[in-house]
Amino acid sequence: MAGPLSHIRVLDMSRIMAGPWAGQILADLGADVIKVERAGEGDDTRRWGPPYLTASDGSKTKESGYYLSVNRGKRSIEIDISTEEGQAVVRDLARTSDIVLENFKTGTLARYGLGYDDLKVVNPALIYCSITGFGTDGPRSGEVAYDFMIQAMGGLMSVTGETDGQPGGGPQKVGIPIVDIMTGMYATIAVLAALAKRDQSGQGDYVDIAMLDVSVAMLANQAMNFLVGGQVPSRKGNRHPNIQPQDVFVTQDGHMVLAVGNDEQFARFAAVLERPEWAEDEKFATNAARVVHLETLHPMISERLLQHPLAYWVEKLGAAKVPCGPINTVPMVFEDPQVKHRQMVRDLAHPLSGTLKQVVSPMRFAQSGLSFDKAPPLLGEHTDEILSQLASQEVRR
Which Pfam families did the record assign (predicted)? Predict the structure, then answer.
């Protein structure tokens, strides 16, 4: 069953995480994604290890775990874009592509004659997406950025981490490159919207995605808490700023996450804890009251949860339809029966290791199958294939 984007070709000139993440999403959806890599060097993330993939003979390869996480389903071609020959190949590929993804420093590709204004001449229907740290205009448009610094600059680290004054207090980044990932998601949404518009107008478009813009957009409710309430959001550890009780609690033998989302859930929660009167108390009956009186409520909940083991509470609260759960390690996640049932980890054929485990796309379609048949490519693995197809003007998979 062909994927929903099996008719689309993507020229992925990006590297690191944000752009390649967008390219991988499009590849999962069936698009033919051609990854352009520096001749002899490849994507920077190929060297971002250890760990590196182990070959079938037990030796270590040059395929880093980081690179393997964001390049599934693509074809790799080595091109030196500083040469006229390399630039000509890129233009030829753009002529038969629907989307270009790039995350070079602002203005770099234009110097090589490969900017949007250059490529739209050879393909007016082209959708060209530039992903940068700060956007293509403004006082910082020419600067380079990485996820970590944008998590700081965009305000995310000011609301992530334990409360100041508590053990472990202070700014904290998210444990994954969340701004890179969300930038890739926004880029994907944008190019798909441009594709939908092109179906009506026949014209391509230029998409400008900035990591800092994405980070600001991601502030979501924290931003509105400030814009509406005037109070500066602060780090609260695991406590939710607007909904309570939502926090990490200690049980008799471990930690659990409690995520009560409304007053009805709180009433059921209180009943399971054998404190039904809490739901009638004016200090706790409504969410707004619980947020105001959290310093009183939190110790009372903690005391009750210490009376039984984690498994007891997960079972009892789950039966009462109160959202809660254990804090799984990454290995525990992959052993979760629901994760296994959803087949979130698949084995893909790989030329060096035989097979390669991959965490696949969470998207599911009733009428279209997603593509999980190509492992992340070796550097230049498809160069000859793609150039041969270019010569015959086919450029097909």
Answer: CoA_transf_3
